[in-house]
Amino acid sequence: MGPCRRIDPRWPAVRAPAGTGLAAGRRREAMTARFDELIAMARANDPAFREIPREECVAAARAYALEHRTAIRERHAAGESGLDVVRALAETADLLLRGIFEFGLYTVANRSALMSRVALCALGGYGRAELSPCSDLDVCLLYDGVLDGHIKDLNAYVIPFLWDTGFVLNYSIRSVNEAVELATADLKVFTCILESRLITGDSTTFARLKLNLREVFRDDDEASAAFIRAKTAARYAELEPEYRDLYKTEPNIKENRGGLRDFHTALWILMMTYGPLTLDDVAALGIISPQEHLDVVQGIDFIWRIRNELHFAAGREDDRLTFDNQKRVAAAFGYGHGSEDDTHRFMQDYYAAARKLHRFLHIAALTCNQHPEMGAVEATVLAPRAQILVHDGQLEAGGEDPFWFAEQPSRIMEVFWECARRMVPLSRATERRIHASLHLVTDTFRTNDLVRRFFIAICNRPTQAGFALRQAAHCGLLGRYLPEFAAIQGRICYEDFHHFPVDEHTLRAIEALANLRHMKGAAPECLQNALEHLPDPYILVMAILFHDLGKAEGETHVQAGVAAAKAICARIGMPPEDTELIAFLVEHHLDMTNLSQYRDIDDPHIVQEFARTMKTEERLRLLFLLSYADLAAVGPGVWNDWKGALLLKLYLKTEMILLGRAKIVGEEYWKSPKAAEVRHLVANGLENEIEPHLKGLGDRYLLAFTPSHIAMHIECVALARKTGLAVNCWAHDETGMSEIVVCTKDRHGLFSMIAGSFAAELIDVNNAALFTRPDGIVVDCFTVSDAARGRPLTDRQFRAFERVLRAVLIEGTDIQDLVDRSRRRLFALLQPRIPVRTRISFDNESSRTNTVIDIETGDRTGLLYDITRAMAHAGLDISTACIVTDARRVRDSFYVTLDKGKIEDVEKQDEFREVLHDAIHPRALAENR
After folding, report:
1. CB within 8 A of 747, min separation 6: which ones?
2. Nearest of 745, 747, 765 to residue 757 by alpha carbon
3. Model confidence over 149-191: pLDDT tens digits?
4. Which end of the chain is more exposed for a tag (fewer CB within 10 A), N or C?
């Protein structure tokens, strides 16, 4: 058996040869006709074919490929269906391969004998007759019997010819028996052969392969079940982390959840249950409804069109929708001219298509008795009511009664209460029955008291509500019961730092309540305690469900959200006191996050004003939980210990005020058990440094760091006194980040020098916390990552950063020269900026001594340096900074003074705004992009 070989160069790109124009076009047409003529000669065994040079045959084949490919690209540019384009490309490849196969047969001595035992087969995606512009062709030369000299001669002719023609092949030569043995031993090979297709050659040989393989799996139910389990797991539990996020900002449209791989996996597992089928067959069998069929057809066609555009434009296989690609594809597809708003509309349509494909996979998994998140279903367990039962690990409702929901529509909501109570998913049959009954969800249903009680009962189970409400959203009930929720489904707001569409963010926020039990640390423990002691948890869940409904009206959503929450509460019949509390939480849902992350909560004025707004402990506790849930659902990795510590600190300080014990907040915190633990960890001889260190940096510092970190900081401070600089680093592989602490003497522009040293070594700063001791030594802490790879720093990278920082701070090296040199590195210049509109504002109310400059923009390597350098050059002194980077969006807040005072003059603010805007969008970088 021959090995599987990858053959280059690429299949002919759409580039006209020298001498383009009318004459060249005519030559290509002539060569295309010549290719057809040569095929006819070879097929007829014409002796004249032997006199034709091989080079002429190759040239004719290349011209044929180029002519057809150019025409197909023109059809794509004119808006042709994505599926039609990939099928046309596959058909062109078929015609070429058939012709080349005929050429090869002509050279073989015993043509007729060979024709009865050799077949050329398409595998994988090409086997489905789906070929993207720059995808490989999976081809197998299949033979029956033994590999004799005639087959070797045929193979020796075909392979070099394909190579010279310009194809990119994953090529193999196998006997029928070898192919079956490999397929039964390797799921990847089996999947390729599952979708194999005869291109040319002996149909009996090909049929024998399919029949033998089918018999193996038909007689082995366990093998079929194992295949279904493995393929389902590959798209869920075992999917690589980088592909798990359907809403990834720069998705891989093939491998990401919701991509082409989801669609194909759905078909593969259905084939193991029902035999060979197409999407149309799936609909004809009733596995999906006509509407679901239409959704999948539209979704897969849109993603095929995107992939075709990416391949045609790049001239190579490119499946990533990078920010640059998003802008270009949006313009190519007629979404305006590729502006930010146009690109956002395009990506909103992409995510909608991806949701449809992922939903199709979910349906296929349920149909094949595999709940996607739970694996194989469990044994039968009956519920108390005969018409609602748990069967094979799934909730079934209505039995055989087709009128069960129609007789009492409130049963629809009751099913989801059972779903929450039992934490089991709906069966596929129940999903479809509910979807078919949505016409029963009328205004009468929405105002029905029994429906309201079931809905509140769902929400009153805060750790289970997310599971049930997601099921309700999938079935369409949630959007039907709450039209305001339907208005935010699929809506993406790029300006508010959220990674997910509004509806997905909302559901994840509710689900975050269930995650608290698995989290460790002071903040999660306090949150869990607060959740367990809520008298009416449904208030919290409903507030989370309603908190972003106003985004249907645009970016300034809070007041619109309050109005929507009040309207819903009135419609479903909530008591006035509940309505008021829910509306309050919606109105203030951003307050705790904004204050804790972007303002100095050591300022008593800030906390006292916040306490006046809260008024009661119940409101504070609910908002604490809502703020956590909202933050945890913003995007992957957005919630972290640092933000948790800040949120907890604001909660505890405010609670003290509301309890009337504010005067003892922070009193002798340096004698707390945590501080005592530091004493056991600090190096010998530094015990006396602990109390002045903690006193000097405040309780915010003590809350933010672990005892081991604080002990290390104290040691760094001691070293900085001796040498002028101390730096330490430790990696967090689970978050893909490193933490770095810098201790040195404070000076004007210090923050800019540190940020510049990061930029010079192409290190991204994701978060920063700045502390200055009374003796003038800073303890500046940064969360960073490798800008090129998005992972923790290696020891070599950290040492390089340390050398640069020492050269700048101790030896006086000009940091600007180092940064300029780093920007000449290609990937630093080409890193795409996320499309976020830059906003710069000045706040003179939050601090009595400083102006707070808030900056929102897209992240890039070196951004923090450019901002802080501009501030230093403008004469601004930075006393505190809150640096937050979420999903490559930046929101930074800088407490600054100008000549030891605030920036109160509006004209001066405008000058600084312009300076900072120019620093964020430097012309040199723009020209290099």
Report:
1. none
2. 765
3. 889 989 888 888 988 888 888 889 999 999 999 988 888 888 8
4. C
Tokens (6 digits) for 28: 């290509």
Instruction: Say whether pLDDT at 502 is over 60.
Output: yes
Domain endpoint, select from 198, 219, 240: 219
Tokens of 510: 């509710």
Do 163 and 248 belong to one domain?
A: no
Residue 477 to residue 471: CA distance in whole angstroms = 9
Q: Which of the listed residues 638, 659, 680 is the one where a domain comes to its end?
A: 659
Question: Taken in order 136, 137, 138, 140, is the CA torsion positive or negative?
Answer: negative
Residues 45 and 60 in one domain: yes
Alpha helix stretches (DSSP H) within 682-814: 690-704, 707-723, 750-760, 795-809
Q: Are 360 and 296 in contact (CB under 8 A)?
A: yes
Q: What is the pLDDT of residue 842?
A: 97
Our CA angle for 921, 924, 929, nearest 5°, is 80
Residue burial 296-325, b: 16+ Cβ < 10 Å; e: rest: bbebbbbbbbbbbbbbbeeeebbbbbebeb
Between CA 14 and CA 5 the distance in angstroms is 25
Cα–Cα separations (whole angstroms), residue 201 to 87, 117, 159, 757, 899: 21, 8, 16, 65, 86
Question: How far is 164 from 166, CA to CA, in rounded Å?
Answer: 5
Reduced to 3 states, what is the DSSP secondary structure of residue 521?
A: coil
For 702, the domain range is 666-711
The number of domains in the chain is 5
With 90 as the cut, is the pLDDT of residue 630 above it?
yes
Considering the domain boundaries, does residue 17 fall inside one?
yes
| 3-state helix/strand/coil string of 829-847 | HHCCCCCCCCEEEEECCCC
In percent, the amount of the chain with pLDDT more than 70 equals: 89
> Under 8 Å CB-to-CB from 495, ≥6 apart: which residues?
555, 836, 837
Q: What is the pTM of this model?
A: 0.79
